[in-house]
Known about the structure:
alpha+beta, 4 helices
Amino acid sequence: MMKTAAPIMLxxxxxxxxxxxxxxKAELNTQAAVDEQVGNALAAEKVRGKLAELAxxxxxxxxxxxxxxxxxxxxxxxxxxxxWGTDDIPLRNRLKSCLMGxxxxxxxxxxxxxxxxxxxxxx
Length: 123
């Protein structure tokens, strides 16, 4: 029993002794900073991400304006469409669902939310 317990105890000791090397998310406290970061993240998503996959659909053309609310840990809390660029209801729902699934690489103060208006243009 003692022969098997020693390696297990050693492994646990090493695991606890090694510091976490994960990168911390930046905390944004101002509306302007959140607007900029969300705009940059959505532009990147249009190039390589969920929005890029959706942009390949033939009916997704035009300008779309959304109010996006960002909450704790960079999660999207709400997506409110201000202006749609298409009349295709299923496509609208997929776009809104795609935006709800995005998680931004920043966090906001606990219990605080920021609403930002973003325009997405699909040529």
